[in-house]
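Internal tracking record. Fields below are filled automatically when a chain is submitted to the structure queue. Please do not edit lines marked as system-generated. If the sequence contains nonstandard residues, flag them in the REMARKS field before resubmitting.
Queue: standard
Priority: normal
Entity type: single polypeptide chain
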Amino acid sequence: MKKNMKNNRPLIITTLLGLCTLAMPATAQKVMTLKECVAAARAGNTMAKNAENDILAAKEQQKYARSKYFPTLGASAFHFEATTHLIKYPIFDKEDVAEMNDILETDGALTVDDFTLKFIKKGTSAGLTLIEPVYTGGRLTNYNKLADLQVDARNLQKDVTDDQIVMSTEFLYYKILELHETDKILDAMEVELKSILQDATNIYENGIVNKNDVLSVELILDQLSALRIKTSNGCRLLRRALAKFIGMADEDIDVDTTLDTEIIAPDQLAMNTQTALENRSETRLLDMWVEKSVLERKIAKANLLPILGVGGTANYSKFFGDWQSRAMGFVGVQIPISAFWSEKHEYKRAKIEEQKALDFRQDKRELISLQIQDAYDNLESTYKQTQIASKSIVRAEENLRINREHYRAGLTNMSILLDAQRQQQQALTQYNAAVSEYLQAKTRYLILTGRRTY
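SYSTEM-GENERATED OUTPUT FOLLOWS
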């Protein structure tokens, strides 16, 4: 029997491995770091894709504007047939015809039409026309500057979108990490409560206390189990939200819980508000908004000015006789006379919009400065919260240790001991939340001061 088993061992091992493979889930959970999540969000988030498409669209607009510097080339072809000749040229006038009729002593059958040359009753033509703008009053130049500005603005807008994606990704990531840390706290609390339960059971069995102490601890353990279920469900929901946000909705992902949570004092990260203001992408976008309004005002003014162009045309046609080819050059000037009482209103409107853009920029710069200061105040506040919560943990743990010793010695009751245990749990939870809020506040402050290196 043993010999047969020994001989069949390779087969048994292979079978077991096959069963293990079948028992494994179709897709394993993917654990991602914060940087990996941010990189995935920048590539897969809908806002990131839209921002990239906006850049591509702006570049196409830029190419379109530049193409207007080149000559416009057009081709045309047509054929016609008229009911009468287009050109009629009488050889003799009526008096000459009448005199000729008298001389010939005719009966008047001859008419003027009998002595008329008739040309072009049908024809066919095909040709090319080339026109090059020489002077447009600044229209082409400013249109091209506007197109270039649009590309730069879209690139800056993508930076702003990236910043929003980073902050949103970090929010979801740290919330998941916070729930993971909460789960660890609950594990530690469960171990602690089971130890307290064992002490209460031993004391109860020795007849020192009644069964209420044991029941109180068991009740707390039941509440802990219910809280663990809520934490697990919340974590699962946040993981799905994170996967959707970073463009990995079909994958089961989780966060790396080994994240470095170094707490840096705010004064080490502080930056002068005015310097930070100039570093912001939004500030440069405001400058571009003003520049855009200036260019639009210049274009409106150019619509009041004449346009000068040169060109040439060549065609191949047949109206009578044989096919003939022709070519000619021309110079043309277009003067927008009606623009002096219509386009001038557009020019005035553009000047008003330019002033509005200047006022808008000033107002938003002041708001951005307030936003930067608020971000620093929030960073300081969350940093202080981490320091307070850290000290609270030490005090809560010492309070729990003392009350547990007193309970074992019969110097205190179970309600006081459980209250001490609750205070320890609360201190750990508050510290966990404070660290999560601090890390988000740090990222927000760095981004709002123009330090986008992630």
